[in-house]
Amino acid sequence: MGTLFIILIVVGIVLLLLGVFVEAVKFLLWLGLVILVIAIIAWLLRSIRSKS
Question: What is the DSSP code (8-state) at residue 23?
Fold first, then answer.
């Protein structure tokens, strides 16, 4: 019974850490997409202004 309890604790901790890691990756993915869109808009504005 003791080893089953230890295995359940370890599995629970691993799943908790994995959940936190996945949420962090999701946040960083959205942050990267926002930065990419801002960079594209800035590049377009700069290229439009330099032509005129």
Answer: H
Q: The pTM is what?
A: 0.64
Three-state DSSP at 25 gives helix
Give whole-number Cα distances, 36 to 30, 46, 49, in Å: 10, 15, 20
Tokens at 35, concatenated: 């930065």
Residues in the chain: 52
20 alpha-carbon distance from chain centroid: 10
The number of C-alpha atoms within 13 Å of 13 and in the hemisphere containing its C-beta is 6
Is a pLDDT exceeding 80 seen at residue 33? yes
